[in-house]
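As a warm-up, study this chain.
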Amino acid sequence: MPRNKMKALARPCLSLHWLFLLAAPTQAQEYVNWVRQVQNVQRADGSLQQVELDYYVSREGTQLSEDPVPETGALFELWTINSDTGEEYLLDSTTVGAYLPSAIVNIETEDPYPNVKRTRADRPFTVRVDVDGLVADADAQEAARNVLFQQFAENYPDGQAALPNGEITSDPIWETLLEQNGQHVLSFPASALEGAVPGKVSGEEHFFIQAMQDYGVDPIVVAQDKIQIWPVTDGHFEGITDNEALNGHPTDVRMIVNDAYPGSTIYAQTYPGTPELGTDGKLIQGSHKNVTEDASASYDFQLNDWDGHFESDGVYTLEIYSESAFGRERLCHLTITIDMSMVFQGGVHSIR
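Now compare it with the structure written out below.
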């Protein structure tokens, strides 16, 4: 239940306007809501003392904080208790301060997928940071003059498509101070994830804006965004080789595609003649796949249906394509020669 450890002394500093919007419980009268305000106050000897102040609030509404917010900042926690069971629940928390800046981090990629920011390991992306609340006074404390921008990059564990507990555990790979209000645009030509094979990595990059430590208040993350990184797709045929000569339809041909991008489409096609990038050929039955997984996926298709693909003798091209947010990309191509004049006599064949 709410408790007051110490009543903080009034001081001429920022007051907090607090808005509560709680989901209504099954029976609202069974729950009691309160705010816990935690902050440091300075003693006469210059040392800091942490105080807590609890006060009841209605289920929904707006009110001023019970105490002004000092320059050292304050932590506000929204709590509720079930009157019948005595169970307490922390519903939300936020930190404010007289010099606490605000920021928004937004990552932009070529992929319009709305549910999560994502891209491929070899593709560029942009991070836009909007900062407000910094002061230009050179004599002001550091926390009032700048914020810290940090970039983290962490690979997924082998065989996994998420970070354990969804958390970054590595150190930042890059950081810099932002000293001006307004928009800061940072462009990245490709992912910073590292791996044994360039481009064959999966994981996440996280970007944080952190308010600096100030008057005993620990650094505070005021904004963040993250992006999923998926490997570069590759593909090839098995059971057939480039420049192979055949006296009929191919047999025992497989299409192998590794790391197909989420939301992409993969397929194989044929057309008469030598390879020409961008040619629309005839779809090979059994090769088409819409990738509906939320992570990259690999496929192995047996290709047996060649009806209508090789209507006369000559050179033909076989290709594997991927169509994704990054466009139409050819993964593999080879040529074969169909020569129906190949004949077999007495177990010995001749070509004429």
